[in-house]
Design goal:
About 60% of the residues lie in helices and about 10% in strands. With about 625 residues, the protein is α/β, with parallel strands linked by helices. A hairpin with a 2-residue loop joins strand 4 and strand 5. The N terminus and C terminus are likely disordered.
Length: about 625
């Protein structure tokens, strides 16, 4: 269903093509736009933000008064050798520390709750948008990289919201308040001395940002590559083991991991070199204040308590400045991740319903492809001037060589793709004029390569109709001749079947897929060699179930084994994206055309190799 019918094996991008696309794709998202996006999303939480800001202001101001109390304790108690003010000043100091702790706890609790809610909203929005995207998006991207954007990159955003924003606001107020308190409450000259290293701070931050930002973007890309490689290898673990490629896959994973390691080490080196340098600058400002201030205190220009307060303020000043530099570091990492999330959110589905799309109410099942032409995003034409009409209740078989475009035809009916020429019509209405939900709810698929979820038997069948009762599920399983083997499972319908149904045989998985389609009760049915994986003994019974399922429904059959379509009302023969023959089996055999040639060749091959599925002697890939 999801394959590129006309592309064949040549149509699937190679690994190098994926990497080339990702490497040349620019992160063209502006910082201003990303910060605007943050502001817009945080705006709905303004009450929470106000509470956090109030808590932050009270706690910060309380902390700013601490050095002044220490000054008074030194000057009025220690230096004056007078214990009378000590109880009052000590109680005041205790109250300030308590206010810092209490309002700090409120601030942290509120900010972390806000961060978690923010990340939840972003993750849900990204996943909801992902579900809206068309199939071509997923065919051009690696699953692991998409997963990395939903998980790792969103988590980096949380770090920015919770720790980055909190630190940015708190430390900015602390820095500004410290300058004001030092200049107004203490001494302007000593304040200017302590701020001498500040311009070097600013220049250093600008240089650091220009170096570190592209590196973090690369680190995020490398992490996405690792996730993609892991997901791909684990999904194909049976193939890996069958061809003894464990060491080969490890070597590829090792290369990806080493690239990530090297990029991370470079970031660590820059970070670990830059911040000690910042710490040294902090010491320079403090030494200047001690050096000059000590002389002023000896000459009686200022007091020892003032010098002590200045040292405390400078520590409060440069520590937040250093934190702000680290916040800048956090923002750079987060913005690199936000850019990757933006790339996902900026993707528009190629297939999207109109604003005034109508609902398909009752569907009789007349399907018409009217002079359809189609190609995938990259590549040559897959279908050329294809016209097919299926009346309600008819069975239409689509046959042809591998890569002829068979799957592409049925992919157009539920609007997995849109044709570039012509129309697809259901009950006289162009499918582009109706809602996707009402269209696809009338269509069910039974595929050759069926997909089952890592859930119970019951829930996999229920996927066909989520509101189905247990009785309806079991009835569908009996109709698909699946109930017998289900009753033999350890927990019957509540048995977990493993990822992609690994605990079941191919035939058992196929019967569950048929039960799922039966439960959906569609008006239009699409079968892609639905019995190809079923053992010979069960095939006849399932064919009876399929005949019951097809009754009064329009059915399209993609057939590799031509003996299964002899009774179809109409057989469409495709060759190189065009219809070359169209008729019933008997008449096509009399014409001695492509269909007769394929049928006779398959008949001869089955005499030699019983059970051969493909008329040309090779199984057709999913994109056939």
């Amino acid at each position: 269903m999801f394959g590129h019918g006309g592309r064949g094996r040549r149509g699937h991008p190679r690994e190098s093509e994926y990497r080339e696309e990702e490497e040349v794709e620019p992160l063209s998202i502006t910082d201003r736009r990303m910060l605007g996006w943050f502001a817009q999303r945080l705006g709905s939480h303004w009450l929470t933000i106000v509470l956090a800001i109030i808590s932050m202001l009270v706690g910060t101001v309380a902390g700013l008064y601490v050095p002044l109390v220490l000054r008074d304790i030194y000057d009025n108690v220690i230096d004056a050798r007078n214990l009378e003010p000590l109880q009052r000043l000590g109680s005041l100091l205790l109250g300030l520390f308590f206010a810092q702790a209490a309002f700090g706890a409120i601030r942290m609790n509120v900010m972390h709750r806000l961060g978690q809610k923010f990340v939840l909203d972003v993750r849900l929005d990204a996943y909801r948008h992902l579900m809206r995207l068309s199939l071509d998006f997923f065919e051009a991207r690696r699953t692991g990289d998409i997963m990395s954007r939903i998980s790792n990159d969103v988590n980096a955003v949380e770090d920015m919201v919770v720790h980055g924003t909190d630190t940015l606001i708190t430390d900015s107020v602390t820095v500004l308040g410290t300058i004001i308190f030092m200049a107004v409450k203490l001494d302007l000259r000593l304040t200017l001395l302590g701020l001498i290293p500040l311009p070097v701070f600013v220049v250093a931050i600008i240089i650091f940002a220009r170096i570190i930002r592209p590196l973090y973007e690369r680190i995020r890309q490398e992490l996405g590559d690792i996730n993609a490689r892991t997901q791909e290898a684990l999904s194909a673990i049976q193939v890996v083991k069958a061809f003894r490629r464990e060491d080969y896959e490890f070597d590829r994973f090792e290369r990806e991991s080493t690239d990530y390691y090297r990029a991370s080490i470079k970031g660590i080196w820059l970070w670990s070199t830059f911040f000690p340098f910042i710490g040294f600058l902090t010491s320079v400002g403090m030494i200047l204040v001690i050096w000059i201030g000590a002389g002023m205190a000896v000459r009686g220009v200022t007091t020892g308590g003032t010098i002590i307060a200045f040292i405390a303020y400078l520590q409060r000043f440069y520590q937040p400045v250093g934190s702000l530099v680290r916040v800048h570091n956090t923002f750079n990492r987060a913005l690199a991740s936000v850019a990757r999330i933006f790339q996902l959110l900026d993707e528009e589905p190629k297939v999207e319903e109109k604003e005034d799309a109508i609902e398909l109410e009752r569907v009789e099942g007349r399907v018409e492809l009217d002079h359809v032409g189609f190609r995938y995003a990259t590549g040559e034409m897959v279908l050329r001037d294809v016209s097919v009409t299926a009346e309600p209740g008819e069975t239409v078989a689509i046959v042809g060589r591998s890569g002829a475009g068979k799957t592409s035809i049925v992919n157009l009916i539920p609007r997995f793709y849109d044709p570039i020429e012509g129309r697809v019509i259901v009950d006289g209405v162009d499918v582009r004029e109706v809602t996707l939900d009402s269209l696809r709810s009338r269509i069910a698929f039974v595929l050759q390569d069926t997909f089952l979820f890592n859930d119970t038997v019951r829930e996999n069948i229920r996927y066909g109709r989520l509101d189905a009762t247990d009785e309806e599920i079991e009835e569908a399983a009996r109709a698909a001749y699946a109930d017998e083997f289900i009753q033999e499972l350890e927990d019957k319908y509540d048995t977990l079947i493993g990822e992609r149904g690994t605990k079941l045989s191919g035939g058992q998985k196929q019967r569950l897929a048929i039960a799922r389609a039966l439960l959906a009760d569609p008006r239009i049915l699409i079968l892609d060699e639905a019995t190809s994986l079923v053992d010979t003994e069960a095939e006849q019974e399932i064919q009876k179930a399929l005949e019951e399922l097809k009754r009064d429904r329009t059915t399209f059959i993609i057939a590799h084994r031509l003996s299964t379509v002899r009774n179809a009302d109409k057989i469409i023969v495709l060759d190189d994206g065009r219809i070359v023959e169209e008729d019933r089996h008997e008449r096509l055999m009399k014409r001695s055309g492509l269909y007769a040639e394929m049928y006779q060749r398959q008949f001869r091959m089955e005499d030699v190799w019983p059970g051969s599925d493909d008329a040309l002697g090779t199984p057709e890939p999913p994109g056939g």
